[in-house]
Amino acid sequence: MTNVAILGTGLIGSSVGLNLRKIYEKRPKDLVISGYDKYGDVVSRAKSVGAVDRITSSPIDAVSDADMVILAAPVLAIEQLVQEIANALPAKAIITDTASTKTEIHRWVDKYLPEHTGFVGGHPMAGKTETGPDAAGIDLFQGARWVLTPRVNSSEPAVTTVQNLAKQCGAEVMVMDPEEHDSYVAAISHLPLMAATALYSVVRASQAWPELSLLAANGFKDTTRLAASDRDMAYDIAVTNSSNIVHWIDRYIAGLVELRGQIEGTEKSNENLYRLIAATQWEYDLFRNGKVGREEKGLSDTKDLEPGMMDFIAGGWVKEKLGQMDKDAEKRREQTDLERLQRRDV
Question: Are residues 161 and 114 both part of a single domain?
Answer without folding.
Answer: yes
